[in-house]
Design goal:
The protein is α+β, with helices and mostly antiparallel strands and 386 residues long. The chain is 44% helix and 13% strand. The chain has two domains: 118 residues, Phosphorylase Kinase, domain 1 (2-Layer Sandwich); 242 residues, Alpha-Beta Complex (Aminoglycoside 3'-phosphotransferase, Chain: A, domain 2). The strands form three sheets. Strands 1, 2, 3, 4, 5 and 6 form a six-stranded antiparallel β-sheet that branches. A three-stranded antiparallel β-sheet has the order 7-9-10. It has a two-stranded antiparallel sheet with strand order 8-11. Bound molecules: 2-acetamido-2-deoxy-1-O-phosphono-alpha-D-glucopyranose and magnesium ion. The site of 2-acetamido-2-deoxy-1-O-phosphono-alpha-D-glucopyranose has 11 residues, from loops.
């Protein structure tokens, strides 16, 4: 079925052979050599495709978009195409003044010039250019990497800061609206007897539920500031966690941010908070050792320096006042999302072992506590760094 057509799920196929089949549908020269599944994403399936011609090798990223999460994959692709075209133009225009070569994935069109391909199973696929010679980290211990993560996020937000938000669709309604996640959590417990049972039989789940109760009033903090007009919506990345930051293997500098599914109007604070919670916890979000989870203030200072180097000119005073809260809030929110998903029976985040979402929630809540304990230090870092 051609991309862009309405399509319904009618058959299933082993995933790898589906990827092989679909890889031919994009405008990339050469013949298929290999496809490997890569990435640690919790939502989409990601592959690296290697093709060769007689004299060259072409590698690209092929992804199957998770339609349980993204109900309108065509809108996701329209946002990505519009924002990357805009950012590519700015990167080119500024290239001579930049201290590095900035990269950003390009949407590779299908054979009939669409931004996605819809297969006969009703799955949506996209191809993106591969960012060459880069490394990613799933945990950070070196402040230099935290600095680079800050630079990359700040630069991306700056590049898209003049993109009109009314040209972006809301591809994931409710994304990062913390009070909405609290309401979802409440309704899972109220409407799903299995969820209530999972809570009642586990003292650890009870402890997490208690943790949530104590922070109920804090959940609307950013949304309230938005309603009062103190903060405003801008184009944001939405998911700038450390695994989405690409570091150049030759120069050691940050060169790109990937995973642009959640680019949409939002608060830049969601991005900053997500970057800090993922780049400043040296144990990473999948650790099972809670005692190693903490907010490392040296990593935080490095991240803030990198971020503000790029972002200080477009952030207002009010924006800056909410940066500490954004780190605490996004960490709490992600813990709540993992916990609610555990209670609901793992319906949103992919898992590889039982109780993984419970464990992920424990990690984020431990990190949240550590952030609360370091509030005054983090606030003074945010004031001190110029
Ligand atoms: C999901 O798919 P991935 O791993 O990039 C999630 C983010 C979470 C993240 C936590 C669309 O991102 O919001 O912060 O897991 N993305 C979506 O690892 O829900
Ligand atoms: Mg993502």
């Amino acid at each position: 079925m051609a991309s862009g057509d309405f399509c319904v799920k009618i058959a299933t196929q082993p995933v790898m052979s589906a990827a092989e089949e679909v890889s031919r549908q994009f405008q990339v020269p050469g013949r298929l050599v290999a496809i490997e599944m890569i990435g640690t994403g919790n939502v989409n399936d990601t592959y690296r495709v290697i093709q060769r011609t007689t004299f060259s090798e072409e590698q690209f990223i092929l992804q199957r978009i998770n339609q349980a999460v993204f109900k309108d994959p065509a809108a996701v692709m329209m946002n990505i195409k519009a924002v990357t075209d805009h950012a590519h133009r700015r990167i080119d225009a500024e290239a001579d003044q930049a201290d590095r070569i900035w990269q950003l994935p390009r949407v590779i069109p299908t054979l009939d010039d669409q931004a996605h391909f819809c297969d006969e199973d009703g799955d949506y696929w996209r191809a993106l250019s591969l960012i060459a010679s880069t490394k990613t980290y799933d945990k950070v211990t070196n402040p230099q990497i935290a600095f680079e993560a800050g630079v990359v996020l700040g630069n991306f937000q700056r590049l898209i800061s003049d993109f009109p938000i009314d040209e972006l669709q809301d591809t994931l309604p409710g994304f990062h609206i913390t009070p909405g996640y609290l309401a979802d959590y409440d309704s899972v417990l109220a409407d799903n007897p299995e969820a209530k049972k999972r809570l009642d039989v586990s003292t650890e789940a009870m402890r997490l539920a208690n943790f949530v109760e104590k922070r109920r009033d804090f959940a609307p903090l950013l949304e309230d500031a938005l309603s009062r007009g103190e903060l405003k919506l801008r184009p944001i990345h939405g998911d700038p966690k450390i695994t989405n930051i690409m570091i150049d293997t030759f120069t050691g500098k940050g060169t790109s941010i990937i995973d642009l599914d959640t680019v949409k109007p939002g608060l830049v604070h969601y991005d900053f908070g997500d970057s800090a919670r993922s780049s400043c916890n040296p144990a990473g979000e999948e650790t099972k050792n809670l005692s190693q989870v903490f907010l490392d203030t040296d990593l935080f200072e490095a991240l803030v320096s990198g971020y503000l180097r790029e972002a200080k000119n477009f952030l207002t005073e009010a924006d800056r006042n909410y940066l500490y809260d954004s780190v605490r809030l996004i960490t709490f929110e992600l813990g709540l999302r993992f916990f609610a998903d555990y209670l609901a029976g793992d319906v949103y985040f992919k898992t590889t072992y039982p109780d993984q979402n419970l464990n992920r929630a424990r990690v984020q809540f431990a990190l949240c506590e550590s952030i609360e304990a370091r509030e005054s230090l983090m606030r003074s870092t945010l004031e001190k760094v110029q």
